[in-house]
Design a protein that fits this description.
Structural class: mainly alpha
Helix content: 55-70%
Number of strands: 3
Shape: globular
Number of helices: 17
Radius of gyration: 22 Å
Strand content: under 5%
Length: 408
Amino acid sequence: MRKKVEKVTAKRNVAIELWRFLIAIAIIGFHVGWIIARSCDGTNGFWMETTNWFFGSSEVLLIFTLTAGYFLASHFKRKNEDKEYQQRSASSKAWEYTWSRIKGLIPVLIIGYILGVLISTKFYYPDYTFQQICSMTINSIWEFLGFHAVGLRSVGGEFFNLNGPLWFISAIIIVGYFLYYGLSKNEDTMRGLIAPFIFVFLSGWWAFTNTRAAQTAWSTLGLQTASTNGMGGAATSSTAFIGFNNGLLFVMLGMLGGMLLYYLISYLQKKEFSKTGRIALTVLNAICAILLLWYTIYPTTWFDLDRWTVSLLCILVIGLTLLNKDYLTALLNNKYTNKLFNYLGSISLYIYMLHYPIGIFMLRVLGPNTAETIYSFWLIFIPTVIITVILSILIKMILDATIFKKKA
């Protein structure tokens, strides 16, 4: 009698998807607070109410870069198991990977910019003429093609142009190509020398100079062209020699860290952890997660953490979650919320790409922000989150049924 062969499928680790979703929501809070602040006349002292506005989420954006680097390395290892794939050139592998990322991100990237054109120009800058709007749109062609992060972006408008946060998506695509090429060319050299070398020394420089992940700031041989250590201002014609966009450097740093995490976690997953060891990992994960969430919402109260300490917390939380050996991660991977967390993670980047113009729209629906009527953070934040999530779900449904529809 023939024995039945049971098909065993690995249980998806959806705890990491929950983290990606939570950080996407937190980043909405950061940008909503920033939009409110910039809409007020700071010279007269009325920026916004004193309610905290998730300012710490500007640092935990690192979580997205860590997971991007981790899954890039995972994709490479999985594909490289095929002998035919191994024989291909490094450039063909890198371009194929990059094209797969572009196909998944560009449609929503374009939608995000279109929303920026329609909303930012008519609500944030209502005095723009039709001719100016057309000029901005045409001059933003490189942004629509995903080259925002290298500086090929529209210069029209004061505040991050059409949909400024999309620099991050652009940077992931660009940096991803070079990192994937490095792995394909010589995996051992990339993971054993280049990745750890750049990660260690770039991290030290990043911390020492207090550099920020600002898309309008550039660094050249240790000199920065923007004020406040890279958080504002812009590169100019006086930029010495050749510079690098701080946003690109931030994404490269995080993705290199994610690549290194992949190899470390692959090694640790082969180890057997005792019950005591699992409890220790659980306690560590819980403490780091609480500190990280607290910092995200209340970055300047009680726990006054340095930015590089927050980066370590991000690495520990994401590393432990991906390792999936502690009881907290196991709890989040329960069968009852598995599908929900997985779906929330699948729309996290959609939320990131669409939220900014929605926040501007909500700000303008309430009318001009003045000293007499300073907006409440929550009054803008909550409806922005609701509308963005609903819009992300609708767009995902449409794209899945059309552009992303898989053949049977």
